[in-house]
Fold Replication initiator RepC.
Amino acid sequence: MQDTSRHPVGRPLSACLTSQVGSHDKWALLRDLTIAAEDFGLGHRPLSVLKALLSFWPERELPGAPGGAIVFPSNRALSERLSGMPESTLRRHLAALTASGIVRRHDSANGKRFARRAGAEIGVAFGFDLSPLARAASALAQAVTEATLRRERIAVLRARLGMLRQRLLGTGAPEELLEAARLLLRRKCSEQVLTAIVSRLEAELPAETPAEIPALTVSSPAQLSASNSQNERHIQESDRSYSDSESTQQAEAVRLDTAGPAEKDAQLSLPMVAETCREYRAFFPDAPKGWHELVAISQRLAPMMGVEPPVLHEAQRIMGPERAAATLLCLLERHAHIRKPGAYLRRLTQMARQDSFSVFSMLATLSRRADPGNCQLTI
């Protein structure tokens, strides 16, 4: 039995599949133009006028043949479709569309817009030719790719700018530079401007101290030195215990000191990571409600730190998403003292593949470093 409760709406799929060569989906073209509007010198108001013009073309497919997509609405009809836009404003935006080359005027002798039919077909029409939009489909696709990459680079630069400004607060950096960074974060600016100020902020970072680097260097047991004064030895020692009993603390320390990396990381908990790693709060002030939120935070922080997606994905595959997220937050704590976080994370991933790396021990080192009463760590 045929279902008559639902009626087909819009153009059938078969008609779309048999569209003429050189035609393009008009709404897909408008979407691409919206993304790359800056490259064509268009704002959101001219795009609204273009959307109204496209709505007067009866087909979804827009042909690319010259003169093959002419619409001829009056200014009054366009104004009504644009929720009452004033005619003077409408003319200005139509001129902007014409100047961009997306729309071409096809005027009659007296400047009026109309069409003359010859039977059931339109013989001649005067108005706005939308076919240049269809012919610009390949240029639009390339512009969309470039605009997307540019926006991603700007987002990374803005995030890095905020991180560098936060890190330089209270370090004696020039107040004018920090104020300029604060103002740029509140306004829209070009990629060149952001790159320049990020470079200036990076030049103000404190010089790398060689004695600080081994604090996060996790070595295998065979490579550890015999001296308890070495920083690398502290990484493999036990983490602080959360028990109230001193005897329980000692027993736990001995147990973790003799345990392997996998057994130590089994003690890893979200509160421990959130309390030990605090630099990420400059970008995400709210405490993560679960491991999934912490993993999402680490994925957004990775490009800001200069960690490439393949390096992060490999770390997540070898360590697991939770351990990789905790490791990335630990690296962020020491970001000012690590030249290449991506290479650092790649090395830790190699050690994790050999089962010689413990995130728990790294967090323990950071905890002792943050504890002002700890006398075991030499700075």
About this structure: The longest helix spans residues 137-168. The beta strands are 24-25, 61-62, 70-71, 104-106, 114-118, 121-129.
